[in-house]
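User: Predict the structure for this protein chain, please.
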Amino acid sequence: FSRRHFLCSCLWLSRCAPVKAGEMTKGTSSFGKRRNKTHTLCRRCGRSSYHIQKSTCAQCGYPSKRMRHYNWSIKGQRRKTTGTGRLRHLKIVHRRFRNGFREGGVPQPKKRTAAQGSSNASK
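Assistant: Here is the predicted structure, written as structure tokens:
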């Protein structure tokens, strides 16, 4: 074979040969090679939205001091608003509010009812 024949045969082979997975394409075959995760668990909101390279949470905006929220997402505000969590402090404040925020008092002694007195007398 001459050099010209050799080059033509190489071109023909390169056109007709099947493409191996991962070569010469950015599409479907490339998606199978993704092994490492971009997001991990967030310390503040607990969701798997903390971007490792950016070091920010896509859900709550951690580590910024203020929570991430936008007024165009009404359902998102509803999910994150007061009353959707444990209310560790507010439920105590609500109980104290119903009783007038009283402090330092002595509870009044409980009065015995007639049913309790008769049951103690029969013993």
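The chain is about 35% helix and 5% strand.
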